[in-house]
Amino acid sequence: MTTPARAAICRGNSQPFSIEDVELDALRPDELRVRMVACGVCHTDMAVRDEQLPVPHPVVLGHEGAGIVEEVGSAVTVAKPGDRVVMSFNSCGSCPSCDIDAPTYCYNFFPHNWSGTRADGSPVMFQNGETMNANFFGQSSFATHAIAHQANTVKVPDSAAAIPLERIAPIGCGLMTGAGAVLRSMKVRKGMPIAIFGAGTVGMAAVMAAKIAGADPIIAVDVNDARLELAKELGATHAFNAKDDAIAKIKELVPQGLGYVLDTTGINSVIEGAWALLAPKGICGIVGASDPADNLTFNEAAMMGGGRTVMGILGGDSDVGPFLTELLDYHVKGQFPFEKLIGYFDFDQINEAIHASEDGSVVKPVLRISAE
Ligand SMILES: NC(=O)c1ccc[n+]([C@@H]2O[C@H](COP(=O)([O-])OP(=O)(O)OC[C@H]3O[C@@H](n4cnc5c(N)ncnc54)[C@H](O)[C@@H]3O)[C@@H](O)[C@H]2O)c1
Ligand SMILES: [Zn+2]
Ligand SMILES: [Zn+2]
């Protein structure tokens, strides 16, 4: 039996998102139906809208959802009806990456997250009896209800019972990526210098995580002065505007070079400039979505001679359940105050929320979809 829902349909960048009636398919054994309370808006939603990623249109996007479980399939153990849950990316559970708890690098990432259907090709959503592309990141949470999976659903721990779901919603993508890049992928060491390029959701999460890791100094670089101020509030010891010769200022501040640089801008020249700041054994982490045609150039002798690393990072090497629980624990203790990034919008203001993300006025817009 199908379940009626309302979902924001994306038909490309020439039309605004439109909230329309849809139906959700009956659940498979490993699936959960979640009544959505809130969903964050992320740049990846816009990248798909603009056809920079190979997700078929029209499509229901949204991949930072949180809500209450309504029904579960027979094989689901991660949550039960009535539980508060947050969702992240989906994975297959049985490939060489999933086998070593590295599901962000799942060999079957595309069919489980971006194909518009379940991995077996069956639709999860319909409109007027026709297939509607959905199952985006295994959720499609720009909707009143979503089908999620055992692999990408996390029960909010009792220790976070007092934190509203509308605040928790965005933790499963950009926040997880920035924090995980620092704590899990690069494993930033206490007392080591780090520079973070781009102070959006991902960069701000990296700044907060660098403070947790005890990095020093923590240097934020952006072109937006308001964001640089917020980065300082969240833990950056220094903040430089990229338009104001930030590279020279970093060299002056840390003449021996940086232990870590993290790029969240996806801009070729920014990554190459950041890489050149590394000390021996330094790591340059790359998370920003870039033009698919871009290539990077590094000096081979400097890379080999200094044992330097360039590291592509997806989802901050999160293993979903354990890492999101760890981040919520930091949040409860006041060490990961990501609420400072959030601006709330009603579900029917989804186009305004997207605009606020694109013009930089709100770091992390979150849609309020239903009352908790
Ligand atoms: N790898 C992953 O797993 C993953 C996960 C989530 C998001 N992303 C990608 O990461 C990127 C960052 O995401 P976000 O949500 O933080 O985006 P964002 O747009 O909020 O942040 C990017 C920041 O970079 C700044 N910037 C622009 N030009 C700059 C320059 N020349 N120097 C320094 N800063 C500059 C912008 O002002 C902005 O504050 C996006 O491309 C997003 O698609 C990747
Ligand atoms: Zn995202
Ligand atoms: Zn896998």
UniProtKB/TrEMBL annotation:
Q: Which residues form the Enoyl reductase (ER) domain?
A: 12-367
Recorded GO molecular functions are: oxidoreductase activity, acting on the CH-OH group of donors, NAD or NADP as acceptor; zinc ion binding
What SMART domains does the record point to? PKS_ER
PROSITE patterns associated with the record: ADH_ZINC
Keyword Zinc on entry: yes
On whether Oxidoreductase is a keyword of this UniProt record, the answer is yes
Q: Which CDD domains match?
A: benzyl_alcohol_DH (cd08278)
Instruction: List the Pfam families.
Output: ADH_N (PF08240), ADH_zinc_N (PF00107)
Write down the required cofactor(s). Answer: Zn(2+)
InterPro entries in the cross-refs: ADH-like_C, ADH-like_N, ADH_Zn_CS, ER, GroES-like_sf, NAD(P)-bd_dom_sf
Q: Which UniProt keywords apply?
A: Metal-binding, Oxidoreductase, Zinc
- Which family would the database say this protein is a member of? Belongs to the zinc-containing alcohol dehydrogenase family.
Q: Please give the PANTHER family that the UniProt record associates with this protein.
A: GROES-LIKE ZINC-BINDING ALCOHOL DEHYDROGENASE FAMILY PROTEIN (PTHR43350:SF2), NAD-DEPENDENT ALCOHOL DEHYDROGENASE (PTHR43350)
User: Which named protein is this?
Assistant: NAD(P)-dependent alcohol dehydrogenase
Provenance organism: Alteraurantiacibacter aquimixticola
Q: What is the lineage of its organism?
A: Bacteria, Pseudomonadati, Pseudomonadota, Alphaproteobacteria, Sphingomonadales
